[in-house]
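User: For my dataset I need records formatted as: sequence, then structure tokens, nothing else. Please produce one.
Assistant:
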Amino acid sequence: MVAERCFNEIAKKKVGASGAALRPETVPDRIQRDAYELSKKYGKKVHEILVDQEILNNTKSLAQG
């Protein structure tokens, strides 16, 4: 649920910043579509990182390098 909420917020910002001329009634559908695309593309990886602490710890140690 955390990841889905994050994808939704990212999609809101993306749609707001796009500058595309969207009718106000189409904005929620566009946000939902973009959030779904983010979820399809990154959902599995984000879920793995949120659930598997070993992956998270390995990533942190790589970043500290």
